[in-house]
Amino acid sequence: VRATAFSVTALPAETTFDAIKDVFLILNNFDIPKGFSREVVKGEIYADYTQLTCARDPQTLKYYYKTYNNQTVKEFDLNSFDSNSKEILVLNTDASKQVFENVNKKLKPTK
């Protein structure tokens, strides 16, 4: 219900970039952090969490995703693949870790 309310009331995006950004902002409301949903089995804790969030642009055949360990949105374009290929391609979505950018040097005094 909340997802519908967010998506119906969001302002129309002017570009595909803005639309995908808005989709991720809406989906962020439903992320499950580690430990929120958990179960203890024989003394060991098992936790559910949002491992991957994805969106797609059906017009351009581009898919976008971010993972629990790296919140940077990544893109892959289905148009760049050979649809006749028999080769199966895989991607380790957890290969890259989140980097926090230090912006201290970008700070400027107010005018």
TrEMBL record:
The keyword Isomerase does not apply. This is Choloylglycine hydrolase/NAAA C-terminal domain-containing protein. Keywords: Hydrolase. It comes from hydrothermal vent metagenome. InterPro entries: CBAH/NAAA_C (IPR029132), Ntn_hydrolases_N (IPR029055), Peptidase_C59 (IPR052193). PANTHER family: CHOLOYLGLYCINE HYDROLASE, HYDROLASE. The keyword Transmembrane does not apply. Belongs to the peptidase C59 family. GO terms for molecular function: hydrolase activity. Transmembrane segments: none annotated. Residues 5-89 form the Choloylglycine hydrolase/NAAA C-terminal domain.
